[in-house]
Design goal:
The protein is of the alpha/beta class. It has a domain of about 35 residues. The protein contains five helices and five strands; from the N terminus they run βαβαβααβαβ. β4, α5 and β5 form a beta-alpha-beta unit. The protein starts with a strand and ends with a strand.
Length: about 110
C-alpha cells in the first residue's frame, strides 16, 4: 500500500513503488497520468478527497472514523509518516519550497511554525 499525499510526478513514482496487486491511495490526483503501470501490476487506485463530505454534507461520519483509525495506527506505532531529514523554520519557507521542488526531499518537508 502506498499513500501519496503529494500527487503530480510523485503519483507516478507511487505506481512504481507499489507491489504487484498493491494499492495506491492519493489525496492530490488532479493531474493527467499514464495508467499503464497500474495495469501492468494490477494495482488499485483510490482517490481520497477529504473535503467532499464537508462540501456535500454526506459521509462525514465515515471520514471521522477513518481519521480515528489512522490516529490509532499512529499511536500504536504501526503507521509512521516519512519525514524529510531537514526541518525548516517559518522564516525558511522559501528554502523549504526550493528543497521540495529540487526533488531531493524524502518524505514530507516539515516547517516549524513556533
Amino acid at each position: 500500500m502506498v499513500i501519496d499525499t503529494v500527487g503530480g510526478v510523485n503519483l507516478d513514482r507511487s505506481f512504481v513503488a507499489a507491489a504487484t496487486y498493491g494499492r495506491v491511495a492519493v489525496t492530490a490526483a488532479r493531474s493527467t497520468h499514464d495508467l499503464s503501470p497500474l495495469h501492468a501490476k494490477s494495482l488499485s487506485l483510490h482517490v481520497i478527497f477529504m473535503l467532499l463530505p464537508m462540501l456535500r454534507d454526506v459521509g462525514r461520519e465515515r471520514h471521522g472514523n477513518i481519521l480515528r483509525s489512522i490516529a490509532e495506527l499512529v499511536e500504536q506505532g504501526k503507521l509512521k509518516p516519512l519525514l524529510d531529514k531537514n526541518n525548516f523554520s517559518l522564516a525558511q519557507v522559501p528554502d523549504a519550497h526550493r528543497h521540495l521542488e529540487s526533488g531531493n526531499a524524502i518524505g514530507k518537508v516539515v516547517i516549524d511554525i513556533e
